[in-house]
Design goal:
884 residues; disordered N terminus; signal; binds 2-acetamido-2-deoxy-beta-D-glucopyranose; globular
Length: 884
C-alpha cells in the first residue's frame, strides 16, 4: 500500500520529533525562549523577534512560560497571543495551560466576585479560553449581562475554532447565552455557534426549518461524535414521505434516525440516495439492519448486482452486512478499502487474503521480532507509529505489550519514567496506555497531569495498574473529598477508578451532576461478545450509580408532587426525571417504578424498555405498570416494551401476546435474557409456540431467523430441524453469535452440517460465520478439525465448549488456539486440562522474543528499516481482525 506515503509521513514525524526533543532540557528556558522572556519584560516591539522565530513557537515549554513577566505591555502581549493562537493545536498541553495561567495572573481578580474575563480579555485569550477551569467559565457565564454575550454578538471567529471544547464547557456557554437572552434557537444565532453547534442542546420541537438546516450545516464541521445531536434533531421528522433527494439532504444526520423512522423509509428513497448514505459512518448495527430491511438493499444489490458493483455503490456501513460468500466473489479489493470498513473477523479474513495473497493466517502478523531488531537510530518512526496505534488491539495479557514498551524505552533511552520530560510524555501518545504499575508509580505529578489527556482515552485499567494510577491521581489531585466537579471533569473516565462510596464523598451539586452526565454520555458499551482480555470499555458503574443518586436526590428535593392513593409515601418519578436519568433510571426503586403513572410510562417506555441493568424485580414492577397503561396491548405496544417483556409469565404471554408478528419478535428478540434462566426461557418458549402456530418453521426466511435473535434459542431441536438449510446459511453469521443452550446449539450445528458439510471440511471463513455453533461439536468431530484451523473458532464459541469436550482437544489443537481465543477460555475449561495440555494452551499467550545477538549487517539493517512498516501494517490488520 502507500509505502512512499508512509515514508513521507516518517520523515515529517521525525522532523517534528527532533524539533520537540530539542526544547527538552534541564533549564527552564532554552536560548530562544529566554530571549522571548526577556523581550516580554521590556517595552520594545516584539514583532521582529516573533517573525524570526515563528518556527520555534510550537516548542514553547511550560516551564519557561511560568517565568514570563507580569508587566508585559499590551501591544506585545497581543502580538504574542496572536502567534500562539495559530500554533495552539501543536503546543503541548502543559504549555497551553501555562499560557492561560499567565494571562490570568496579569489580570487582578475583581473583589466583587465577577469574572476578570472582559470582552477584551476574551478576544485576547482566543482559543486559550478553553484552558480556563470550568468554575471560572461558570463565574463568567453567571454574571449579569455577561461579557460572554457581548463577545458572542461581536465575533463568531472564536467559536469556529474551539475544536477542543468539551460538553461541560459547552453547557456553561449555552447557559450563559440563555441568561442574557440570546436565543440560540434563531437561525442567525445558530450561524454564529461554530464548534458550539457540535454540542447543541437540541429541543427539536422548538427549531424552525431554517434553524434546523443551519445547524445541520454546522454539524458537518464537527470532529467528534454528534450522533446524539442528530438523533434529537431528526426525532420529530416525518421521514415516511421523504423522497430520495430529501433523504440525501439529511446527509450525516441520517445516522440519527430511529428504528421506526428507518423502517418507514420508502425503498425508492433509500436506493435513490445511496450515494449520499454511502458517506455516513455513524450507523449502528441495528440501524443498518433496519435500513437493509426498509430498502431491501440486500436483496437488490447482493442478489442482482455483482460483488464489485455492490462494493462500489453500497455505503461502508452496509457493505459490512455482505456475506463472506458474496465478498469472496469480488475481484478487486483495494487495500484502501481494507482500512476503511468495520469488517467482522470473517470478512476481514476474506479481504486480507485477497489483498495479501501470500498471507496464510493472521498469526503470520503476530511476531514483533523484526521490531526488536530495528537499530535505535531508526526507531523514532516506530515510536510515532505506536504512539498513534490502537493499543486495544493487544489483549491485556499479551506479552507484546511489554515487548513494545521495552522497545520504546530503548529507543527513547529511558529505563525509568521519572526521567521523562513533558515533551516525551506527549510523544508517547497511546504507548502510555501500555504502562505498567512500575512506569505509572515513577511518573512525576506534573507528568501525570500531562498524561491525563491520553490516559483517559485508554479505556479500562485493572489490577496493579489501576491501584498505581489511583494512588498517583490522589497524589496529584489531592484526596477525593477535596475534589470539585472541575477535577472530575479533568479526569473524565479516570474518575471511574474510584468506587461508588468514594465518589459519593464528592459534594453533590448540579455541576457535578452535569459533569458526570457528560462523562457517561461518551462511554458506549460494545455490541456483541467481547472477551474480558480485550474489553477496554471503562467500567463506569460507580459513576453511573452516583449520577443516579444525585439526580434523584436533587429532583426530590425541589419537587412536591401529588401522590396517588395506592402509592402514598412514594415520591413518584416524572417524565423529566426519567429523561434526565436515561439508563441510570436503574437507580429508581421497585416502589418508585411501580408507581409510575400511565402517561409517564408511555412517554418514557423507550428509555425504560432498553435498560439492561434492571433486575427482574424492577422489570416485574414495570410490567405491572405496562399492563395498566396498555390493558389490551397490540403487537406494536409489546414491541415498544422491549426488555420489559422478559418479565411476562408464560400465562400472560397467552393472554396478551397470543398472536405475535415477526416485527414485535424482532424488537424483543435481541435480549440475551431469553436464554439465561429457566423461568424466562419458559416464557420464550410460549412466545415461539404462539408464533409458530401461524408460521411453521419450514416457512421462515433468513431475515425472519435473523429477526428472532435470542428467541431462536427457545426453539425445540425438532423445530430447528425443520428450518431450511439454505435460509439458515444466509443468516449464519448472525445466528453464530447467539449463546444458546447446548441442546439448541447442537440442533443448529446439525443445520450447519446440512448447509456447509462435515466440520472437518469447514473453511476458515465458514467457521467464522458458524461461530457459537462450533461449541456443540462432539469430541469426535473436534478431532477432525485440523490444528491450523483452530484459531478460527470464534472466542464466543470457545467460551461455550463444555469442559468435558474441551479436555479432549489435542495438544497441537490447543497450541494453535490463538491469542484471542486463549482470552476466552474459562477457568473451568482450564481446570479440565492436564499439565501438558495446559502448557500447550499457554503457548498462545504470545511468543516470547529471543533477542538478536548477531550484529546487524548492512543488508539486514536495511531489511530492518522496512520492518517498522511491516509492524505498523501488521498492527493495523490485526486490529481489523480482532475488532469484531
Ligand atoms: C507574577 O505574579 C505572581 C502573583 O501575582 C507571582 O506568583 C509570580 O511569581 C510573578 N511572576 C514573575 C515572573 O514575577
Ligand atoms: C465588579 O468589579 C469590576 C472592577 O473590579 C467592575 O468593572 C464591575 O462592573 C463590577 N461588577 C459588579 C457587578 O459590580
Ligand atoms: C446581543 O444581540 C442581541 C440581538 O441578537 C441583543 O438582544 C442583545 O442585547 C445583545 N447583547 C449584548 C450583550 O450585546
Ligand atoms: C422531493 O420532494 C421535494 C419536497 O416535496 C420536492 O421539492 C422535490 O422536487 C422532490 N424531488 C424529487 C427528485 O422528486
Ligand atoms: C537508519 O539509520 C541510519 C544510520 O544510523 C541512517 O543512515 C538511515 O538513514 C536511517 N534510516 C531511516 C529510514 O531513518
Ligand atoms: C538505568 O540506567 C542507568 C544509566 O543509564 C543505570 O545506572 C541504572 O542502573 C539503570 N536502571 C535500571 C533500573 O536499569
Ligand atoms: C471503596 O474503596 C475503598 C478504598 O480502596 C475501600 O476501602 C472501600 O471498602 C471500597 N468500598 C466499596 C463499597 O467497595
Ligand atoms: C391507568 O389506566 C387504567 C385504564 O387503562 C386505569 O384503570 C388506571 O387507574 C390508570 N392508572 C393510573 C395510575 O392512572
Ligand atoms: C406469519 O403468518 C401470517 C399469517 O399467515 C402471515 O401474514 C405472515 O406474513 C407470516 N410471517 C412470517 C414472518 O412468515
Amino acid at each position: 500500500m502507500g509505502q512512499s506515503a508512509l515514508f513521507v509521513l516518517n520523515s515529517a514525524l521525525m522532523f517534528s520529533f527532533c524539533l520537540m526533543m530539542s526544547s527538552a532540557g534541564p533549564k527552564k528556558c532554552t536560548e530562544w525562549e529566554a530571549e522571548l522572556a526577556t523581550k516580554l519584560a521590556a517595552s520594545a516591539d516584539i514583532t521582529p523577534f516573533l517573525s524570526a522565530n515563528t518556527d520555534k513557537l510550537p516548542s514553547l515549554s511550560e516551564s519557561c512560560v511560568k517565568t514570563f513577566s507580569n508587566t508585559t505591555n499590551k501591544a506585545n502581549l497581543m502580538k504574542l497571543m496572536a502567534e500562539l493562537d495559530k500554533v495552539y493545536d501543536i503546543l503541548d498541553a502543559g504549555s497551553r495551560h501555562a499560557v492561560f495561567l499567565w494571562i490570568e495572573q496579569l489580570n487582578p481578580k475583581p473583589a466583587n466576585g465577577s469574572s476578570w474575563m472582559t470582552v477584551e480579555q476574551l478576544a485576547l485569550l482566543d482559543r486559550f479560553l478553553l484552558q480556563a477551569p470550568l468554575s471560572s467559565l461558570k463565574t463568567l457565564a453567571d454574571m449579569e449581562s455577561s461579557p460572554l454575550c457581548a463577545f458572542f454578538n461581536s465575533s463568531n471567529e472564536l467559536w469556529r475554532s474551539l475544536y477542543d471544547l468539551n460538553p461541560a464547557q459547552a453547557n456553561v456557554f449555552f447557559t450563559g447565552l440563555k441568561k442574557c437572552s440570546i436565543d440560540v434557537a434563531k437561525a442567525a444565532n445558530i450561524a454564529k455557534l461554530g464548534q458550539l453547534a457540535c454540542l447543541y442542546p437540541v429541543d427539536a420541537n422548538l427549531l424552525e426549518d431554517s434553524s434546523r438546516n443551519k445547524l445541520l450545516e454546522l454539524l458537518k464541521n464537527c470532529k467528534g461524535d454528534v450522533k446524539n445531536v442528530y438523533q434529537k434533531l431528526t426525532k420529530s421528522m416525518n421521514v415516511m414521505s421523504f423522497n430520495s433527494s430529501q433523504l440525501g439532504e439529511l446527509g450525516d444526520a441520517a445516522a440519527g434516525l430511529g428504528m421506526k423512522q428507518l423502517a418507514s423509509l420508502s425503498k425508492e428513497a433509500v436506493v435513490g440516495s445511496l450515494s449520499t448514505l454511502s458517506k455516513i459512518e455513524g450507523f449502528s448495527k441495528s440501524q443498518k439492519e433496519a435500513l437493509l430491511k426498509a430498502a431491501g438493499v440486500a436483496d437488490i444489490f447482493l442478489k442482482t448486482k455483482s460483488a464489485d458493483e455492490a462494493l462500489s455503490i453500497l455505503p461502508p456501513a452496509l457493505i459490512t452486512e455482505m456475506t463472506t460468500k458474496k465478498l469472496q466473489e469480488a475481484s478487486a479489493l483495494s487495500t484502501e478499502l481494507l482500512g476503511k470498513m468495520p469488517w467482522n473477523k470473517g470478512q476481514a479474513l476474506v479481504v486480507m487474503a485477497k489483498a495479501f495473497s501470500n498471507l496464510k493466517t493472521t498469526e503470520d502478523f503476530k511476531s514483533f521480532k523484526d521490531v526488536e531488531a530495528v537499530p535505535t537510530t531508526n526507531c523514532t518512526f516506530v515510536v510515532s507509529v505506536f504512539a498513534k496505534a490502537e493499543h486495544r488491539l493487544l489483549g491485556k495479557s499479551s506479552k507484546r505489550r511489554e515487548e513494545v514498551l521495552n522497545y520504546i524505552k530503548t529507543c527513547m533511552s529511558f529505563n525509568s519514567t521519572d526521567k521523562l520530560t513533558a515533551n516525551q510524555v506527549n510523544q508517547l501518545g497511546n504507548v502510555l496506555c501500555m504502562f505498567g504499575p512500575a512506569e505509572i508509580d515513577k511518573l512525576s505529578n506534573s507528568n501525570l497531569k500531562e498524561a491525563v489527556d491520553q490516559l483517559r482515552g485508554c479505556g479500562k485499567f485493572e489490577g496493579d495498574v489501576k491501584a498505581s494510577l489511583r494512588t498517583k491521581i490522589i497524589d496529584t489531585y489531592g484526596a477525593f473529598e477535596t475534589w470539585t466537579f472541575d477535577t472530575v471533569n479533568e479526569l473524565q473516565t479516570l474518575a471511574s477508578l474510584f468506587n461508588e462510596s468514594e465518589i459519593n464523598k464528592l459534594s453533590a451539586s448540579v455541576d457535578l451532576k452535569e459533569t458526570l452526565k457528560s462523562i457517561l454520555s461518551h462511554v458506549k458499551e460494545p455490541e456483541g461478545f467481547v472477551p474480558a482480555d480485550v474489553n477496554f470499555t471503562p467500567d463506569v458503574t460507580s459513576l453511573k450509580s452516583s449520577f443516579g443518586k444525585i439526580v434523584i436526590n436533587l429532583f426530590f428535593k425541589v419537587s412536591r408532587r401529588k401522590r396517588a392513593l395506592t402509592c402514598s409515601g412514594i415520591t413518584i418519578p416524572t417524565k423529566d426525571l426519567i429523561l434526565e436519568l436515561g439508563s441510570s433510571s436503574s437507580a429508581l426503586t421497585v416502589d418508585q417504578l411501580g408507581c409510575l403513572s400511565n402517561d409517564t410510562f408511555k412517554e418514557t417506555v423507550d428509555i425504560l424498555g432498553d435498560i439492561t441493568a434492571f433486575p427482574m424485580e424492577k422489570l416485574t414492577a414495570l410490567k405491572t405498570v405496562a399492563l395498566m397503561a396498555y390493558p389490551t396491548p397490540t403487537n406494536n405496544d409489546i414491541a415498544g416494551l422491549k426488555r420489559i417483556t422478559v418479565a411476562f409469565t408464560a400465562a400472560e404471554i397467552n393472554t396478551y401476546f397470543a398472536t405475535p408478528n415477526i416485527d414485535a419478535l424482532a424488537a424483543i428478540g435481541k435480549y440475551q435474557d431469553w436464554s439465561s434462566d429457566a423461568t424466562v426461557a419458559a416464557t420464550a418458549k410460549q412466545i415461539v409456540e404462539n408464533f409458530l402456530k401461524s408460521n411453521a418453521s419450514n416457512t421462515l426466511l433468513s431475515k425472519d431467523l435473523l429477526a428472532l435473535g435470542y428467541l431462536l434459542c427457545a426453539f425445540t431441536p425438532e423445530q430447528i430441524a425443520a428450518v431450511s438449510a439454505a435460509e439458515y446459511s444466509s443468516a449464519a453469521s448472525n445466528i453464530g453469535k447467539l449463546k444458546c443452550s447446548l441442546p439448541v446449539l447442537t440442533a443448529l450445528k446439525n443445520k450447519a452440517v446440512e448447509a456447509f458439510g462435515a466440520p472437518s471440511a469447514w473453511t476458515t471463513v465458514q467457521m467464522q460465520d458458524i461461530g457459537t455453533l462450533t461449541a456443540a461439536l462432539t469430541s469426535a468431530e473436534f478431532s477432525a478439525i485440523s490444528k491450523e484451523k483452530m484459531s478460527y473458532i470464534t472466542p464466543e464459541a470457545v467460551s461455550l465448549i463444555p469442559p468435558a469436550v474441551f479436555q479432549t482437544l489435542t495438544i497441537d489443537q490447543l497450541r494453535f488456539l490463538g491469542t484471542e481465543n486463549l482470552a476466552a477460555v474459562s477457568s473451568q475449561q482450564k481446570a479440565s486440562l492436564d499439565t501438558t495440555k495446559a502448557l500447550a494452551l499457554n503457548e498462545n499467550s504470545g511468543a516470547t522474543v529471543t533477542p538478536t545477538s548477531a550484529p546487524l549487517t548492512s543488508a539486514s539493517a536495511s531489511l530492518a528499516c522496512e520492518s517498522p512498516l511491516a509492524a505498523a501494517i501488521a498492527l493495523a490488520l490485526t486490529l481489523l481482525a480482532l475488532s469484531h
